[in-house]
C-alpha cells in the first residue's frame, strides 16, 4: 500500500475502524525499507472502492486484515527457505507481487486430478536477490475447514505467528522459468530437506480424506470468484453506458426496514430544525460564489446529523492543518455520504 493511501472513513461507514498500519518483515526491492500493510480502515476503503464488500461486516475487517498479514508473513518465510537453498548468502527482497485468483497453476491443476480442493487464491511474487537477479515464485492458498480453530483470540493472529492460522495451507515454490529453477525444485530442495539443511515443509500432492471431502465447497468458491469477475466486467460496462445515457434510480429500488425508516425520520427532523438557517441561505443566495458557500454550509450541517463519522473525520483533517489531497478525500466522503442519505430519504418518502 502507498503511504498516501486513503485512511479516512468511507461514505457508507457507520463506525470507526483502526487506522494503524503494521510494518511487515518483508524487505522492499529497489526502494529499500519494508512493505507496510494496509490498516483496517484502508482495507475497508479498498473493498468498498472495488464493490467487494459482499457480506463482510465492518466489525470483521480487523480480523480479516490480521489473517491477511499473518499469511503474507508465512508466505515470505517459505520464500526465504527456498532462497536459502537456491541462493545462499544474500538477503532476498520482494520486488513486486500480483494476485491471480482465477489462474490455476499447473501444480494446482494436477492436485485437483488427485482430489485436492481448488485453491481459493494464487499469488505470483517476484524476488530480487543481492546479486540483482530476480526470481518468480508461485503461491497457491488452500482452505481446510477441519483445521480451523475456535479458541479465543484465534481470529486475530499475531503477524509473526507462523502456526496461528492452521486452516490456510500455503504451497510456495519457484516458477519453472529457467533450468536452474527446475533443478531447485527437483533436486536442490529435496536434498536439502533430506540432509536436514532446510526446515521447509512441502505441502503433499495428495489430499487428506478431510480435504478431499471439501473439494465440492472449494469448487463452489471458485465458481463464485468467476461470477464475481463477470459481474465486475458487466458493472464496468453498465457504468460506461450510464455515463453516456444517465437514468434516475427508481425511488422504490430498495425497501427500507422499519428501523432504517425510523432512523431517517429522526435524522430529518434534526436537520429541518438545526439546519434551517443554512437552508434559508441556500434559498436566498444570489451569485454562484454565495450559492457554493451556502450549499457547502448546508451539506456540512446535514452531515453532522446524517454522517457523524465522515463529518468528524473532515473536521479532524482541517483542525490538523492538512492541505490538498487529504482534505479533498475527507470532503468527498462527506458529500457522498450526504448524497446517499438524500437518496434514502427519497425512498423513505416514496414508501409512506
Q: How would the global form be characterised? A: elongated
Strand order of the largest sheet: 3-4-5-6
Secondary structure: helix percent = 40-55%
- Report Rg: 26 Å
Helices and strands, in N-to-C order?
EEHHEHEEEHHHHHHHH
Termini separation (Å)? 46 Å
Low-confidence stretches: none
Strand content: 5-15%
Summarize model confidence as the mean pLDDT. 85
Q: Treating each run of at least 4 consecutive H or I residues as one helix, how many helices?
A: 11
Count the strands?
6
Largest sheet: 4 strands, antiparallel
Overall tally of domains:
2
Quickly give the structural class. alpha+beta
What oligomeric state is this? Answer: single chain
Q: Would you write up a description of this structure?
A:
The protein has 352 residues and is of the alpha+beta class. The protein folds into 2 domains: 23-230, no CATH class; 259-350, no CATH class. The protein is built from 11 helices and 6 strands. The protein has helices spanning 40-49, 61-86, 106-113, 179-194, 209-212, 215-244, 258-274, 276-284, 288-306, 308-319, 325-350, and strands at 23-27, 34-36, 93-99, 121-128, 134-143, 168-174. The longest helix has 30 residues, at 215-244. It is elongated and about 85 Å long. The protein starts with 22 loop residues before the first strand and ends with a helix. The model has no long low-confidence stretch (mean pLDDT 85). It is found in: Mitochondrion inner membrane. Residues 1-16 have a biased composition (Polar residues). This is Holocytochrome c-type synthase. Residues 229-246 have a biased composition (Basic and acidic residues).
